[in-house]
Amino acid sequence: MGREAVLSRDQQILESWWRREISEPELRERLRFDREWGYQWEPFYGLLIAAREHAEGIYGVDCMPRYDLRRIRSRDRHAAVKIHEMREQHPQATLLVLFGESHMAPEHLPPLVKQALPNERTITVLQNVDALYWQAVGEEAQAVSLGPDAVCVFNSNPLEKYESYRLCLEKWRGDDQPDFSPAVYNLIFSLARCLGFRLDSPHNGTEPKYLADSLPEVVYVSESDAQGHLHEKEKAAFEHLGCVYVPRTNTFVIREFKMAHAAGEAARFLHHACKGMPHSYAPSKLEGALAHFGSRLLCPGNLEGQGDHPEGESVYRAYLEGRVTRAAVRRMFLALS
After folding, report:
1. pTM of the entire predicted model
2. What is the DSSP pairing of strand 217-220 with strand 2-7?
3. Ramachandran bin of 16, using left for φ above 0, alpha for ψ from -120 to 50, beta for the remaining angles
4. Where do the domains of the chain lie?
5. Using CA atoms, how far apart are residues 311 and 302, in angstroms rounded to an integer?
6. pLDDT tens per residue, range 1-37
7. Closest Cα to residue 261, out of 311, 289, 302, 206?
8. Could you tell me if 32 and 66 are in contact, meaning their C-beta atoms sit under 8 angstroms apart?
């Protein structure tokens, strides 16, 4: 396995870890992982563990300079050479090389690898390319073929992808506590606009009143801190979903941003706002159906839990097929008969 996250100059460090001569913390420190790479350590290290258990070797295939995109082609050429060396070291193995999206462009690393290994079959697997996402959604597919030697797979939508990157940027700026407010408000506004609701209506009726002024406070809490914020049913939802909208306090309590779940809770808020933010509150089947509808509308590629909410899934399917109009869905959110 080849990793962009490891510079080839640090190969001896990687091999020391492979031989179990150094610990995980020492590996992280000596690779200067947080300074040189900066993304989450846990998924990276999980792949290293899997490779040590099942692969023949792990190789760093990147080089400096990383922060000058004008030099990306030189890094591509360097990587192609390193991949060729991997093949020489492991002539019978299937090679798996992980690189970022910029390197996967048709004029970058893929043709250089084919040139370096002309007799090998190479397959480029892209992930979560924005331009292809809606094609996959339309086909209800988890992957889209780009020809005989390329495919794009999806495990998130564009909003979720860029929210993850935004949180990385916050971390790099030194913000210890993640700020999920922009993502939550973006979901609420996106859903409202999809359904044709105004953000500045002065009264309830056919619109939520001053929706932009009714936004919930977004509160980040760890699982252990949720005790003081939530009732028992809310705690159960929070533990399962990673977030929960609390109508009695108009707060959006969140531990982690899971797009589909957050979209469902955003729909719960919108339904509550459409009803005029009543002080008395009791959950209903309609609210559950609308939460599922909102989740599917904003995350159409997410198929999780379809069978758990048949009413919501039925509304979503009917909406897609034109059997339920946008005006009819608005009336559901407004709880109008």
Report:
1. 0.67
2. unpaired
3. alpha
4. 2-122, 162-333
5. 17
6. 999 999 999 999 999 999 999 999 999 999 999 888 9
7. 302
8. no
